[in-house]
Request: fold
Amino acid sequence: MIGAALEQATARLVTASASPRMDAELLLAHLLGVERGRLLARTERALASEEAARFATLIARRAAGEPVAYLLGRREFWTLTLEVNPAVLVPRPETELLVELALERLSDEPAPAVLDLGTGSGAIGLAIAHERPTARVDLVDASPAAIAVAERNRARLALPNARTLCGRWYAPVAGARYAVIVANPPYLAATDPQLGAPELRHEPRAALLAGPTGLEAIEEITRRASAHLVPGGALIVEHGATQGAATRSLFQSGGLEHVGTRHDLAGLERATLGRRPG
Reply:
């Protein structure tokens, strides 16, 4: 029965997930090809032996720390449903702050150019492109596998005002200038204990690990930002909760002004922004 299968799966996931019942329901609904609400209305339905075996496999993978988003092959972000797989990070709710900040700064721009560095699945840039159809959004990532995911998301969402480019940071957009540059770069240090978290073990290490200090990618992005911003253009970067002061210093060293840091919904420093003088 569906009800009994969910109870057993929930019990198995108690120590592996912060939301064991929800995870079990999402995975079984996905396997059966039904909406979660419809699944819960049919708890007396028997599972075929093949369905039960496939569900057990999914639960075992989840119990081993594999993110639900990878098991489903998708993740909700902003108002979009995005394809995700182990080539890209799972988009986090706190990263939506970068979309909010970018849209604030684009409110008076009729046809702005936007650059999303380290785009991964395309989450930030595609959300901006969706909200601002008159914007031109470039999505850049050094990983060909990640860019393939971002391009599939762009095509499925039918966003012709976005394009995907493969290369390291600013290399694919030499000479271009933007009203807003957004980036969610790797910002974990090599010794950061978070790297040992079960879910992070399944995510691409290159998108998480910046180097010995955790600030290497942020430093490279900020150092070269002014050359790719229009006068008055803004750089917005996500960083770790304890990296606000260091990131502000890097922004100022890069010649940016009006530098400030915004907090996420948990009250943690999450995104720093600054403007090119002009």
Q: What stands out?
A: The chain has two domains: 2-64, 77-275.
